[in-house]
Amino acid sequence: MTNPADDYTLAELMCIVAAREMPPTGVVMLGMGLPVLAGTLAKLMHAPGISLCTEVGAFDWSPSPDVARAPIGIHDFNLNDGAAMVTDMVDALGTLLMGGNVDVGILGAAQIDRFGNLNTMVLGDYRAPERRLGGTGGNTEIACLAKRVLTVMPQERRRFVERVDFNTSPGYIDGPGARMRAGLDPQGPNRVLSTFGVFGFDTPDGGETGSCEMVLEAIFPNLDPEAVKIETGWDLAVAPQVREVDPPTAEELSLLRRLDPYHFYLTPGRY
Amino acid sequence: MTNPADDYTLAELMCIVAAREMPPTGVVMLGMGLPVLAGTLAKLMHAPGISLCTEVGAFDWSPSPDVARAPIGIHDFNLNDGAAMVTDMVDALGTLLMGGNVDVGILGAAQIDRFGNLNTMVLGDYRAPERRLGGTGGNTEIACLAKRVLTVMPQERRRFVERVDFNTSPGYIDGPGARMRAGLDPQGPNRVLSTFGVFGFDTPDGGETGSCEMVLEAIFPNLDPEAVKIETGWDLAVAPQVREVDPPTAEELSLLRRLDPYHFYLTPGRY
Amino acid sequence: MAVSKLMSENEAIERFVDDGDTVYVGYTAAAYGLCHAIVRAGKKGLEAVGGSVGPQGTMLFLAGCADRVRSGYIAGALRPGLVQDMMEDGSLKYEDYSNQGIALMLMAGALGIPFIPTRSFLGTDYLRPDYQDHPGGFLGPGQKWAEMESPFDGQKFVALPALRPDVAVLHAQRADEDGNVQAWGHIGDAKWAFWAARKVIVSVEEIVPHEVIAADPGRTVVPGFRVSAVVHMPFGAHPSGCLGYYDFDYAFQAATSTRINRSREDWQAFADEWIHAPGDRAGYIRHLKEHFGDDALDAIRVNAGQSPQAPVHYGYADQLRFRL
Amino acid sequence: MAVSKLMSENEAIERFVDDGDTVYVGYTAAAYGLCHAIVRAGKKGLEAVGGSVGPQGTMLFLAGCADRVRSGYIAGALRPGLVQDMMEDGSLKYEDYSNQGIALMLMAGALGIPFIPTRSFLGTDYLRPDYQDHPGGFLGPGQKWAEMESPFDGQKFVALPALRPDVAVLHAQRADEDGNVQAWGHIGDAKWAFWAARKVIVSVEEIVPHEVIAADPGRTVVPGFRVSAVVHMPFGAHPSGCLGYYDFDYAFQAATSTRINRSREDWQAFADEWIHAPGDRAGYIRHLKEHFGDDALDAIRVNAGQSPQAPVHYGYADQLRFRL
Description:
The complex is a heterotetramer, with 2 copies of chain A and 2 copies of chain C.
Chain A: H1 10-20, E1 25-30, H2 34-46, E2 49-54, E3 58-59, E4 85-86, H3 89-98, E5 104-107, E6 111-113, E7 118-119, E8 122-125, E9 128-132, H4 139-145, E10 148-152, E11 160-161, H5 178-182, E12 191-193, E13 197-201, E14 214-219, H6 225-230, E15 237-244, H7 250-259
Parallel strand pairs in A: 1-2, 1-5, 5-10, 6-11, 10-12, 14-15
Antiparallel strand pairs in A: 3-4, 6-7, 8-9, 12-13, 13-14
Helix pairs in contact in A: 1-2, 1-7, 2-7
Chain C: H1 9-16, E1 22-24, H2 32-41, E2 46-50, H3 55-62, E3 66-71, H4 82-89, E4 93-96, H5 99-111, E5 115-118, E6 146-149, E7 156-161, E8 167-175, E9 181-182, H6 190-196, E10 199-207, H7 210-215, E11 220-222, E12 229-232, H8 250-260, H9 264-276, H10 281-292, E13 304-306, E14 314-316
Parallel strand pairs in C: 1-2, 1-8, 2-3, 3-4, 8-10, 10-12
Antiparallel strand pairs in C: 5-7, 6-7, 8-9, 9-11
Helix pairs in contact in C: 1-2, 2-3, 5-6
């Protein structure tokens, strides 16, 4: 590894760590927002063997190394340039995802809770919203049906909550066996990539056993686990050995920034 | 009308009468066998406004006036030449037919009975077949779901039977109300075009009321209703006024023969 | 067949959109020009449906044309503004599904089947009994979905009811006068909207001779006999894009989508300037150039992307050596 | 991705077809060459499935490779012969559906849903209780379909169980070495077989560079990551046709399909001459020319049909004027 870049934001490192989390091969479904940027980075640098797909209908997108931008959302036309197949949403979220072809889903959300459930719907009571959000898009089915889920979310106490206000996108729901009781398959190993660190879940078998709670596994440079706990809305479990995340390499950081030329993704307040 | 051609076979007139039965416009789904020949003739001569479609996935096929042949079955590649859209079987038998877009289905079969039910499956008892047939293809769903059905079948006592050995393709099943009780929509006005004449069904409302039995309405030139009864396996109802079918015109006959250059359709024993 | 379905956007909306209709307003084949025509026509009591309902749908809410939405994602509600306010104060009723949910429901509607099973939604709060009759909704309990088990293996699933919009408004690359539409590129849930809707109104960048359609029938997404009206409307998707013709006008979109959602006054000013005054899409484009300069569209001109390389031939033999 | 899936037909069958597999053998994308390879490999206990099972499937029955069929139409049973005899004497078990039934079941399998509703089959004898456990069948009662009513409107329908063949053998126009397959023309139920089958073996007329695929991704019917093996096999569909490459060899088909179905001796003679002795499809084509003359394929050469006329561009802007 080359000299670490010393001038980077936590959000930048979050995206880079998400890219590093990608398996070397497999079908990856990109959720809305930062997952598109992280997935593009991974495809170009960390995991050229993955097949990037979107719910809009672009399958196995292979951007050229000098692609001018990460797609501006999953509707960006540049997803048609380098795709092996372009089709429709039923093929993407139905045939591809429901059909069992998606190895990894990468998602963002407004809230996440200790069991990895996501909320993209509403803040407060669904029946009397404090604040209504845009909605789930394909987030729900990716969380229900992908074999693994990576979640990319800034570490904020108001977003890392004890219990999501509305579970649009099931992680381990309320603990061991819950996914199977609901009629879903086991899922994992899942990961959460935040602006402070990397989290796994305490289950060896995708939710059958274990506490299924989120566990801090790795932390960003110069951060203390206590800082993570402060920005987490429940008593966060911490792994016995908390690894320190490698800072961005110069290559990672320069490519990430080149892929976001309009600061569409990494403008503070937008993620 | 020009001078009638005086040298023609009853099978040729059957196809010509089927073509004459086509409405001026509407979506027509072509079944296997003679319906393809009759539909092509209609499109080129009697009903240029119809949209010919096949279960294989050719939609709104408009052959050029000098087309070299009627399609050799519904898989003939020439159905891609002149089609407005080509797609797959789910779009054809699902989206198009189940979706309620098919105005007329035109079918053949091994047997037909007094209520217009068809059999494409087996002769004798399904559990101990005398003779097993090829199977129904799309015949079943066209009979279930098209708004109208035209059936093209040679007049033979062994094929016009009191009750089909296996009802693969419901007409009026066992009489008034039967389609609706089964969960199907009303259907009609249906017609049967045989080598002896033209039959309707005694129901004013697609099977809700009336006897729903087949009725001889028109007869081919120089034939006697008694001859039709002899080749019908039940006590055939005959309309008070049995119209005589116009013989083929020279144009109809020459075009029909040009469309079957290999005698694929009109070789005796093949239909 | 031979009857031309070509007409102006204002005529198409007047003839084929009725007050109270359920209108497919998607995201991918975004028919901004047709939605502007709906606003001009002052239609009322519409329901907007789509896997995602894009900013063109927001305009139907803000204009008071649509008071219901059935969707998986509502672009106008992404950030604080009038649409969130309307959903919170009850002036915009909503039934939340997901992108896949609506896409499958449109497919079921197109297929003429009563419902489609999915394993999505299992384990979510969507299915909470106390959420089925929520104050923001309009379908009522029992009509939104049903939890069932497979008669074959007992697999739990959610039955999503078929959705047949009264009318769909879509934008595509090209069509002939008969309404045979050709589109290419990732198409989202629009593919099934073309088949699910009882009436289809499509605006296109180009009207082409039927021969162009017939020369590549595999590119056709819906045959003319399913289409009610075809509108020739260059830049009909602006500020969304049309693959092969122009890209998204993100600058215009970012500016206006925030602004129109900010206050009634801002919305009315936008509607007067960009929807009512121009009268139609041609006027809108003229105003765009007056407002931003003749080079207003340069930023979205396509300068990248590919075209088919290898030949495709729908070839067959017209004379056969046939022996029976 | 970068791993080539290109191999010979004999290797593909050996590696990806197991005794007892349920094998999609359709009609429209008829993989005669791959079926011949199955016969050569002497696979046993296969089940043939397809909306219609064409003459290439007949060979699997006659060779004793397949002893079960789930289909809406069995070409070999159209006229008296061995296949009818096998169905009547119990050596070929069958479950009868319809073209639409199997096509929808493949779609349900591809979608990962437990079943798909249809309003077909209502009012037919297929549903007769005393036919559900018929001696010719193999699924057993309760597994073939279920009559149900919609939870939303009480509409009666038939639930067809999802069908996921273990393997599909298909022929198409072209693919790259990664297995990205492009096909055009009316395609029957093959479209969903590409997605429903757990393993996909495809033979193609041409192997093209990946750039050809990426130049027109809308023409792709299945991405490489769903394909197990790609076989470069010119004339791989003969005596069926391949749109744009050659038409049906009706003469050869009419002669052989009747003959092979007539007697065991006739079948064995055909199999020895046209399947075993040639060793592979290249040998089969050589033998065809030896047997019928060098002009054997002239009769099926394409001399009619169209190609796309108007340009199609997957164009976008690679530099944007962006303001947030």
